[in-house]
Design goal:
Blueprint lengths: L1 E2 L5 H12 L8 E4 L1 H8 L4 E7 L1 H6 L1 H5 L4 E5 L1 H7 L8 E6 L5 H5 L4 E6 L4 H13 L4 E5 L8 H7 L8 E5 L1 H11 L2 E5 L16 E6 L7 H6 L1 E3 L11 H16 L3
Parallel strand pairs: 1-4, 3-4, 6-7, 6-10, 7-8, 9-10, 9-11
Antiparallel strand pairs: 2-5, 3-5
Helix pairs in contact: 1-5, 7-8, 7-11
Length: 258
């Protein structure tokens, strides 16, 4: 099959989803570029369809052989109309994430990460990357956060989102209910907390919560959490991704201390 018209309904659906940073009506997520598509091969997401120009088919032939998905060739002009980046890389995929459960994220020796109102896709993606790097069991995007379908988030996560369990669009009350049900300790990163991150017990079953860049943590969440801070010199506070990464590193250090 080859698509050449920029008005093709399928390409238009991809264009709308990519531009809005949301899944398609069928629940599929647009993943652009050879690097992310290659990362998805070892991940848990189902690759449904691959779209590539003739030039990309030749350039990424070895990668395409690894993909068990329908391959659709698209003219360069039509492909350019679907891409959300300034320099289209002439290959994209439609993927379906798994249906993760609370048990997947909070079971076992849980080390979860909860994003509360984090809307910057770069920060959110970096947090997901750090979550995988330091052994987190999952990431929870509370309602009001950037969607995982956002292209900038996917690029910032650099493939980690294909492997790290996640839930999104979670109401705060549902999140707190599940935390209590799982008997998991909840820590909230707060620059004014008296307890600093190294003094917190992060060896037990825990969830680390980080608030939005502009508004911080919601009152409901703070009321249920143990606040912890990261001491700084001359800088009043760190951004969400940096603070969360430091806390995750400390959790990893505590859990692997001899």
């Amino acid at each position: 099959m080859q698509l050449t018209s920029t008005k093709n309904p399928l390409l238009q659906a991809i264009r709308r989803a990519a531009a809005a940073g949301r899944p398609t009506e069928d629940g599929l997520i647009v993943v652009e570029g050879p690097h992310l598509v290659a990362e998805a091969v070892s991940g848990a997401w189902q690759i449904e369809q691959i779209f590539a120009t003739a030039r990309a088919r030749a350039r990424y032939a070895e990668l395409l052989l690894k993909l068990d998905a329908e391959l659709i060739e698209v003219s360069e002009r039509a492909f350019a109309s679907t891409a959300s980046t300034d320099t289209p890389q002439e290959i994209l995929a439609l993927m379906r994430p798994p249906k993760w459960s609370w048990k997947d994220l909070l079971g076992g020796r849980a080390l979860g990460v909860a994003l509360d109102g984090v809307q910057d896709p770069g920060n959110a993606g970096t947090i997901v990357r750090s979550a995988e790097a330091f052994g987190a069991t999952g990431v929870m995007f509370l309602k009001g956060c950037v969607r995982v379908a956002n292209g900038k988030l996917l690029r910032a996560a650099a493939g980690s989102l294909f492997r790290v369990p996640f839930l999104e669009g979670i109401e705060i009350q549902e999140f707190l209910h599940q935390i209590r049900l799982a008997a998991v300790s909840l820590y909230a990163l707060s620059m004014h907390a008296l307890t600093i991150v190294p003094d917190a017990d992060l060896q037990s079953r825990v969830v680390l919560a980080v608030g939005s860049e502009g508004h911080g943590m919601s009152r409901e969440l703070l009321a249920e959490a143990q606040p912890i801070s990261i001491p700084t010199v001359k800088v009043e506070s760190l951004n969400a991704a940096t603070a969360c990464s430091i806390a995750l590193f400390e959790a990893h250090r505590q859990r692997n201390a001899q």
